[in-house]
Amino acid sequence: MKILLTGVTGYIAQRLLPVLLDQGHEVVACVRDKFRFNHSYPQAKLQIIEVDFLKEETLQQIPADLDVAYYLIHSMSTQSADFGQMEQTCAEHFKRSIEQTNIKQVIYLSGIVNDVGLSRHLSSRKNVEDILSTGCFALTTLRAGIIVGSGSASFEIIRDLVEKLPVMITPKWLKTRCQPIGIRNVVEFLVGVLGREETYRRSYDIGGTDILSYKEMLLRFAKIRGLKRRIFIVPVMTPRLSSYWLYFVTSTSYVLAKNLVNSMKVEVICKANNLAQLLHIQLLDYDTSIKLAFDKIEQNQVLSSWKDAQTSDLFKNSLTHYLDVPVNGCFRDVQRRSALQPELALQRIWAIGGKSGWYYGRWLWEIRGFMDQVVGGVGMRRGRKSDSEIYAGESLDFWRVLIANKAERRLLLYAEMKLPGEAWLEFKMNEDNILTQTATFRPLGLLGRLYWYSVLPFHGFIFKGMISNIVKPAVSRQTP
User: Which of 78, 131, 186, 476 is deepest in the core (most CB within 10 A)?
Assistant: First the structure.
């Protein structure tokens, strides 16, 4: 089949894409920015097109000879306050465009909407479903609640709470029940309904075998991890306080935390259906989904992370807009060192951030991350998806990867922290194994210049210490 896949830089689509390719389907991947897409997939059956569903004129690139489309576009983590309007606009543009093709089926991943009083997030998902259902194609809707998998937003938020807080004072919405589902089952359902005519023009709730409160989910997660945790629920924590609580403890943004809190007040429990039996899917329980997620993490095989799809409002333009590092009107800190063991130095560069840290002044980096978080920035909480591999478009602590080219031995990062200007950090090694580390800051007005001079004393030893530790030779241990 020829399949249109939307939301390709998102968490779900990145899991779905390799499965579709492995099954021999021809996939047309829609991305807003090619530079934010991992190009390591085989290209024989993959076509990449740049499409922004908020801009209807860009949809002309969508080919007409399609069989099926996956609609996996969601905007809950956007910095815009009116994500519902954005989702409606995208759905309307998508529907009008797809109706001009030969498409037979559209598969939409939505949220469970059984409660009368829906949150803004779930109401928006239902509105998108209503829009798509009026199209001249057959719509199959899969409705999921909490999705559990390595790199998923739900998994990472639960992980942050459990592993950071031995005692939790929590809001009353932790009593709300839900029916979590493992990412493996979600992908199985998405693939299973592909081309199945008995699923056309129907919607299905999909969930795992367990119905749990959020408190039970946290405690069972802690048990699997061998941690003792105490949770006390208080009735006085307002939605705003709950949102700040999630924001400061976990790696989520405040906007996403606020939308999650509103959604977590609503029970998301599946209505009974026979889809799992029809598709011969063995549903996983919550504990198994958690254990499978940690298996992927321990093997360093996390295929996708919700953090890579979560960007600040800096990237209204394509990432290509930031690839040419400016020189005029900029402050720069340039450090050069000879790498006696170039492969080791490159290995350290490719592992920078996350668990490896920044090789010098860790506590200063953490303070800078906390300061950024206090003013609403992303902070240092996002880490990195893989300990050893990195691709353009991925998040890296409070940076965004612009270029990660091993052949050219070059890594270029762009700062997503809150700054009175713009900042780049580049590592590049030449043929003589001289590593050049360049920090570039383009100030915005007087405040930007004052900021640079205020941090200049710290830069003096942080950047020198960082490059020195990157090129430091390995210490050989001699046996007596």
Answer: 186
Give the residue among 180, 6, 189, 191 at the shortest CA–CA distance from 87. 6
Token pair belonging to 196: 């199945």
Structure tokens at 363: 């506590």
Q: What is the dihedral of CA 362, 364, 365, 367, to 10 degrees?
A: 120
* Residue reference for tokens 């209807």: 56
* Residue 172 near residue 237 (C-beta atoms within 8 A): yes
Q: 353 with 451: CB under 8 angstroms?
A: no
* Short-list 395, 396, 394, CA closest to 352: 396
Query: Which amino acid, residue 116?
Result: V
pTM: 0.73
| Bridge partners for 415 per DSSP | 399
Question: What pLDDT digit, counting tens, does each position of 72-94 carry?
Answer: 987 654 544 566 788 888 889 99
Q: How far is CA 455 from the centre of its chain?
A: 30
**Residue 238 is inside which H or E element, if any?**
none
The residue written with tokens 């200063």 in the block is 364
C-alpha triplet 36, 377, 317: angle, nearest 5°: 35
Tokens in use for 459? 């830069």
The amino acid that residue 469 corresponds to is: N
Q: Where are the alpha helices (DSSP H) in 351-444?
A: 362-374
Pick the closest to residue 120 from 86, 93, 148, 144 (CA basis): 86
Nearest by Cα to 405 from 35, 46, 8, 30: 35
**Degrees (nearest 5) of the Cα angle 29, 93, 186?**
50
Instruction: Provide the pLDDT for residue 40.
Output: 66
Place of tokens 């430091």: 472
Among 32-46, 62-76, 239-253, the range with the most confident prediction by mean pLDDT is 62-76
Rounded alpha-carbon distances, angstroms, from residue 348 to 268, 344, 468, 475: 44, 6, 12, 15
Over the chain, what is the mean pLDDT? 84
Q: Are strands 167-170 and 230-233 parallel, antiparallel or unpaired?
A: parallel
In the block, tokens 């009008």 appear at: 96
- Tokens found for residue 103: 């498409």
Q: What are phi and psi of 369, to 5 degrees?
A: -65, -40
